[in-house]
Amino acid sequence: MVQRFAALTFLVLNSLMVASCGFLPADGPRPIIVASQGSDATDENAPYRVVRLNQENVQSLKELPEARLFSRFGNKAKSPTARIHVGDVVTISLWEAGSGSVPSSLPNALPPQMIGKDGLVRVPFADHIDATNLTTDELADKIQRALRGKFIDPQVIITAQQTATQSATVIGDVVASARIPLNDKGDRLLEVLAQAGGAKLPAHEVLVRLVRNSVSETVRLRDILENPAENIYIHPGDTLYLMKSAPSATVMGAVRGTTYLELEDPTATLSDLVAKAGGLSNTQADPSSVYVFRYEQASILQKFDLKGQANKNSPIIYRVDMGTPAGYFVAKSFPIKDKDLIYVATATGTDVSNFFNILRSGTAAFKGADTVIQQ
Questions:
Q1: Fewest 10 Å CB contacts: which of 12, 115, 262, 342?
Q2: Per-residue DSSP letters for 8-60?
């Protein structure tokens, strides 16, 4: 009876192998699955795009630096005309002309005043003046008109000492978290960060999140330093949050050692990461199907004539053929980014090998069971 059961099982396993190798265990998606579910340039509904890498398009990627902050927020400086708001501190200086229009005395500076919730400032002989949303020149003119008839040719100068609403906040892994007053000339991100003492950690280990109104974007500090377009102007009310996050990548599939690697070298390439994972498995790997899974900006997709959504990262899979000498040069020049996933596909021939291993194990089990029954 055991022999009949073994024969039946053999037939079932053989049918499964012939019907599809998809029933056999694998490290991940096979090349045919990756290709069939990916898209070409015209398919907008595919879950991801597949790009075959060569030296030409790798060079194109290098020439197209990422500009996440610039593309999300632009690079327009704040209005040079600052206005007074609740919480600002102003100093009012008054002059009165003497005989012959000669000033009667040195400037008479009133004590600094913080603009309260009512938006008013107090001026002798002029009572309360509404300063809300006025420039310093507009407030000076308003006070000057209120004092006419009470003083001889009154003159007024307003100095904004502290402008709570004309500031940005820097917090997180910086030397000194602070609210940074912004200059009328405009302050760029790195200038504001410097006023908070700078980052505590190396630039490649620091993520910078810029929050403006209800919009936020996160980039690595190293990318801001390397790409001047990312050093955008900071606006009043912006928040900069610095956090530690060492860049990393994962290597999976038919390599000698599947691993999670920190990218200590910012110039690490695909070949570097594959080597750190022990290299391709000479018994399992399909060297023509080495993939890099990544989310890319719409500008990157446009470089390959692929369709993507504006202001939204899209999934893309880069394929490298490391079965050719040219493929190794491509892998050596293709830079790896934070959170990349590198997957080496299993060669088709290993499916047959896996099947016979399963069959061999099953046969041994049947023989063992037959021996036990005979005893």
A1: 12
A2: HHHHHHHHHHHH-GGGS--SS--HHHHHHHSB-TT-SSSS-EEEE--HHHHHH
- Pick the range with the lowest mean pLDDT from 10-19, 55-64, 77-86, 279-288: 10-19
**What tokens does 286 get?**
């399909």
* One-character DSSP codes across 321-354: -TTSHHHHHHHHH-B--TTEEEEEEEPTHHHHHH
Amino acid at position 62, single letter: K
Tokens of 7: 């024969």
Q: Does domain 22-52+247-351 have CATH number 3.10.560.10?
A: yes
User: How far is the C-alpha of 128 from the C-alpha of 116, rounded, in Å?
Assistant: 12
Inform me whether the pLDDT recorded for 168 exceeds 90. yes
**CATH fold of 89-162:** wza like fold (3.30.1950)
Rounded average pLDDT over 46-56: 85
Domain boundaries, the chain: 22-52+247-351, 69-77+167-244, 89-162
The whole-angstrom separation of Cα 147 and Cα 219 is 53
What is residue 249's predicted lDDT score, i.e. its pLDDT?
93
Q: Which tens digit of pLDDT belongs to each residue from 83-95? A: 888 888 899 988 8
- Counting every residue, how long is the chain? 375
Residue 348: half-sphere exposure toward Cβ, Cα within 13 Å: 5
Burial (Cβ within 10 Å: 0-12, 13-18, ≥19) of residue 106: exposed
Q: Using a cut of 0.90, tell me whether the model's pTM lies above it.
A: no
The architecture (CATH level 2) of 69-77+167-244 comes to Roll (3.10)
Do the domains spanning 22-52+247-351 and 69-77+167-244 agree at the CATH topology level? yes
